[in-house]
C-alpha cells in the first residue's frame, strides 16, 4: 500500500507541473523516476520509452503507467494514470462548463486559441520530422503518408499507412544485430498479459458492431474515443484529425468549440489526451457534461492501459529481435506525414483566414521555437492577439 500511495503522490505532482507536451513529459519522468528516486536505471527507462513509442496511444502516459506497474503492480499503474491525468482533465471540464454559458462563436480570444493550435502543431511537425523523417526514404514515406491522409480522410487509412510503413521499414532499413539486453523485472505474468491484449482487441472489434446494432449516444461516444486511443501512433497531436472527424460531423460540437478546446489544452500540464474530457463535456451526448467528460476520458485512455499491461510481460523478448527498430523507423516516418496532414486540415484551414492570422501564428511559432516560452504563456498571448485582430477587423 505504501508504494501505491507513493506512486499516486509522485504522479499527481507531475500531473500538476509537467508542461510542454509528450517529449517534455519524458524529461520530467527521467528527472523524477530515474535521477531523483532511482526507481529504475537509465537503460530500463530507455527501454520502456522505446516500447511506449512503438505502441499506439499517448506515449508519455504509457511510460508513466509502465513505471507505476513496475513499481507497484497493476494498481500502481492505475494510480500513475490517475495522478498524471486528473489535474488537467478536471481543469478542461471546468473550461468547457464556462464556455457552455457563453456565446463564443465569434469571440476574438477563441480565434486566438485556434491560431495558437497552428503554431503548436507546426512545432510538433518540425521536431518530429527533424528526428524521424530524415533521409530520402523516410522523407518520402512522410510525404506520401501526408498526401494519402489528406486525399482519403478516414481513420482506417491511417491504420493502413502505419502497417505498410512498418513493413517498408522492416524490409528496407538496416537491421541492427541483437545486443546483450538486461531483462526488466515486470510483476505481471505472460498469461495475464495475454488477457489484457485480448481485451484490447476485443473492445476494438466488438464496440463498432454493438454501435451498429444499438443506437445509443453513450456507446457511440465510447467507441469513437476508444478507437482514437487504440489506433493513433504519435501521441496527442496526431489524434487531432481522428477526433475531429468523429465529433464535429456528428453534430456533437462545432469546429470552433473543438479548436478552442485544443488551444486550451496546450496551456495545461499533463497529457494531451485529456483533451477528450473537454470534448466529452461539450458534446451533446449527455445532458450532464461531467458524465460525457468522464466517459470520453476513460474510453481514450483504456487502450493505453490494456496495451501497456499486455505488452510489458513480452517486451524483453520483443526488443531483442533484429528488425524491430527498422519497422519502428518506418512507422515513425508515417506518423510525421499524418501530423503534417493534421497541420493543414483541420488546424490551418480553420484558423488562418487573413494575413493578421498568419502573422499571429508566426509570432506564436517564434515564441515556442526560438524564445522557448512555456506553451501556457504562448496560449495567453495568442488569445490576447486574437482579441486585437477581432478589434482591427
UniProtKB/TrEMBL annotation:
InterPro entries: Chr_Tranpt_l_chain, Chromate_transpt. The chain crosses the membrane at residues 78-97, 109-129, 141-173, 193-213, 225-243, 263-282, 294-315, 327-347, 354-370. It is found in: Cell membrane. It holds the Pfam family Chromate_transp. It is a multi-pass membrane protein. Its main location: membrane. Keywords: Cell membrane, Membrane, Transmembrane, Transmembrane helix. The keyword Iron-sulfur does not apply. Belongs to the chromate ion transporter (CHR) (TC 2.A.51) family. This is Chromate transporter. It comes from Heyndrickxia acidicola.
